[in-house]
Amino acid sequence: MIDPELKYCPKCNDEYRAEIEVCAECGVALLSGSDMLAAVNRANERRDSRAGEIGPGEDIVAIHKGQLNEIRAMERELQAENIGYLITGEESSCKKGCCPSTFYLQVRRQDAPDAFAIVQAHIERTTALNHHDLSNCDAVFNPEARQATCPACGFEFQTSTTTCPDCGLCFG
Which of 42, 65, 103, 161 has most Cβ atoms within 10 angstroms of its Cβ? Predict the structure, then answer.
């Protein structure tokens, strides 16, 4: 139940007192209860307007590629939003059962932005990426440089070693 006198986080739905401006968990600006209620109503209308199951000849796009168990875990969330989807196998699988098959999660083109947001939120939630410092992800180990920054943990170390002394990530 949304109280118009309180504030809410549009990302995690946490509830706050009226004088609080920013979500402590997500760091995003809070919405008033009235604005949150309007956003929920718009989302419900959007969900109810979707066609559900995909029929033959519809314009579909792939929004995720992965293992079947990973894609199956997203099904319930897509169903809750009335987003029709197809799970299709990759043609290049060896079909002998020894190689893990890769699958595509496909949705209607018009549902793709909402479905992609659901998939991204699922990945962030299940991998806990939203709770990690990703600021060093673009760091590159250059053996010719004197120092390197580990992309996994951010530790700076001499390049005379090819293993991060802090987390053990190997670069060689």
Answer: 103
